[in-house]
Amino acid sequence: MHIQSIPMSVVHEGVGSSNNYAYLVHDDETKDAVIIDPANPPEVIPVLNDKQSSLNLTAIMNTHHHWDHAGGNTKILAALPKPVPVIAGKDSEGVTKTPSHGSKFNIGKNIQVTALHTPCHTQDSICWFFEDQSSDERVVFTGDTLFHGGCGKFFEGNGEEMEKALNQVLAALPDDTKVFPGHEYTKSNVKFLKKVAGDNKAVQALEKFADENQETQGKFTIKQEKEHNVFMQTKSEEMKKVTGETEPSKVMAKLRELKNAG
Ligand SMILES: [Zn+2]
């Protein structure tokens, strides 16, 4: 499995961010490929054109419907030599297929994809778990649900839903699964982690890495997120103490409130 990150600046009428990622993923053997969250066509189309003779694009995929993830679908489709399905949650622009939670499909010969529904940031959020059977490699594209050292805002959900998304669904993935989030937020997430878990050695290691590297996507695994990401530690005594709550979903909600407050 080969993953090419495409950093994007998705700004519309002065609103947006300059730290989004699209991901072009292909099966090494068949060259079948998908593009995930290609929100800014002017930055994505040149990459797709460049790869047109070497890769076979089979789908556009989205992690959720927000315009800085799914807002480029129609323009990307119009620029392709042949139509491809849009595989995404129900509210994405131009969506043609929404796999149910736990359902699987293949990309080329070796990549098996599992849809993991993780409603909370949006109700249509889906994390995509990719396993390459030939290289024994596992990755998960988490959109705005899980970031390195953080999680997305609860725009359409609550603490109970994010607790389930992070600490049941994503936490159940194999330890060595590499995490590819939808934004480069690691540095700002570290600031919050230091406030609530400053003594944690894994947080200090994450800070060092983020200070030394502009791009951190795919550099940490599910196992490491459990070690440095307080949103994956809602059952710990430390986070109960920090939040004054005992129920994991309430610990989660309180942590998000604290982070929102800055
Ligand atoms: Zn979003």
TrEMBL record:
The keyword Metal-binding applies. It comes from the Eukaryota. Its cofactor is Zn(2+). One of its GO terms (molecular function) is metal ion binding. Residues 19-183 form the Metallo-beta-lactamase domain. Pathway: Secondary metabolite metabolism; methylglyoxal degradation; (R)-lactate from methylglyoxal: step 2/2. The keyword Hydrolase applies. It catalyses: an S-(2-hydroxyacyl)glutathione + H2O = a 2-hydroxy carboxylate + glutathione + H(+). Keywords: Hydrolase, Metal-binding, Zinc. Gene3D superfamilies: Ribonuclease Z/Hydroxyacylglutathione hydrolase-like (3.60.15.10). Its EC number is 3.1.2.6. Belongs to the metallo-beta-lactamase superfamily. Glyoxalase II family. This is hydroxyacylglutathione hydrolase.
